[in-house]
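Co-fold these.
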Amino acid sequence: MSENRQPVTAGGRLSRLLALVPWLSAHPGVTIDEAARHFEISADQLQSDLWLLICTGRPGHMHGDLVDIQFWDEDGRIDVIDPQTLARPLRLSPDEAAALLIALRVLAQIPGTHDRLALASATTKLEAAAGEALTGSSSVAVALESAADGEATSAVETALSSGRRLHLTYVGAADVRTERDVDPMRLLTLEGRTYLEGWCRRAEAVRTFRLDRIDSAIVLDQPAEIPQDAVPVDLGSGALRPEGPAVTLLIAPDMSWIADEHPVDSVEELSDGRLQVSLPVADESWLVRLLLRSGESVEVVDRPDISQRVQAQAREALVQYGK
Amino acid sequence: MSQRERTERLLNLLFALMASNRPVPKSSLRDAIDAYRESPSEEAFERMFERDKDELRSMGVPVETIEGSDGSGGIEGYRVAAESYALPAVAFSADELAVLGLAARVWEQASLGPAAQRAVRKLETLGPGSIIEGPVGIETRIATGDPAFPVLLDVVRTRRVVAFDYRKVGTAAPERRSVESWGVVSRRGHWYLVGRDVDRGEPRVFRLSRIVGNPQPRGVIGAYDIPSDVDVVSMIAASAPDDLVARLRVAPGRANSLRRRANGVESGAPNGVADVLTLSYGDDEVLASDIVGFGDAVVVLEPQSLRTAVIRRLTSAAGISGEAPV
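Predicted complex below.
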């Protein structure tokens, strides 16, 4: 999230200074360390920002023209004496306004227990605060897949808000229906789909369940008991990478969407136009289904056993058609 | 010139432009700011000033250019009006700030992340205190990793024609496209550009991951209007209407995604083992692709066109390559 890992341009630093002065004014007596942490910079960087600020001001730079900030007392506290014309933050740029508004619209689409009242009023206030900066941002949209079963979704919401255990009937990627008790932790939306994250009492581990694959969900009377050491899913890049060994595939151009749709470890374009892809696979029966759908356009390089399974299943299916 | 010196120069320019309500002539700005005064020539000063003015504007500082009142069209000076500089005093409650923090985290690790973070830092100055970073029971992430994303967001907003090289599915060589962009839409984790293809004269949808290199904005700002009746989300989702009906024989407990879509299930018919599903669909090839994934667990009873599509795909997957199956 931090902007500070890359070298900051003069414009980037100025943006921070213009936000820093009003924030310090609103937090009189804040320490240098607290302010640095808030702006995700080092204490040295913050002090260097403050030194720069007090060298600037209205033309003439006479006494009373300059920004006045005190920050040299031993207790490390900062007090803004005279912010000049920087007392209020700069209005939002189009990028800033659009980033928040689009995200708020996404949140509004997500089923769940979050504070819808605050969401609605924050959106209204953001629109008021942004004004003209929002021109054009209505043209950016995020479409979420709707969770298929409304009853299951509302059961999940109830369980989350009341902290109770769920009994789920769930169909995983391998087309196998399972029943299990789950202590719900939170709702996640990743790549346009919504998931329930919870402590699965069958697996004794944190698991995620796609809402549109939940066949039924029943709220139980027992309270959810999430172990102290349950680690939520890391939402960094690769959150959806299946846990399993990678399989190497050769993909013809007409099926190149496979490399777009699935988290792949590597993609290389060969001279004949095909893609050589390293695809992590958690569940081999899922891969067999994908290969059945792809026909001759996808070739498995390093797993002859899987190719044989695909061919055998296709032949068995053809028998049903009298072939 | 170091980053520190340029930052200081920009800040002093901003103070000079805000110092009074009257427009400040360029000559006064040159006198007022050390770096301008010390520039070796008039041309060097002009270049520096133009760059600085653009930089302030790109950050959202409303730098106004005021024309002289003598009607000659000459520029009297520049100013930044205090009331248009400052964020309106809209106070956010702690709950609302928590929601804004949640919204900013949607773009964590995305190209809009820093902008969202800056926006929150500004807005929370207007609230009662700092954002509470507690768990809210819901987390959302949207990636904007496509390099074309920032440029396209900008051309949609400014309504400029954009040109880029585009690689269609199933073709090797990219083609040049010029597009009047109407919107940018994310669906299933992928971003799409919706707009009018200028050369083809028709609406088109482009997937950002298939754009090769950087898109280039062309021509003037506000070059076209976005049709008022256009719904960019439905243009992405558009597919054939579900006006066909299939009957499928499905093994017990299998093909659950098809069962969920079914209009009706006749249990146990006709041989007492399998179920028969009735299902509305729009396109033989699309449904056939879903069906073959289930192997022998699903058999198409009708229509014939769907049976043919499934048999052709199974034959291909069986490695029988078009020969009559044995």
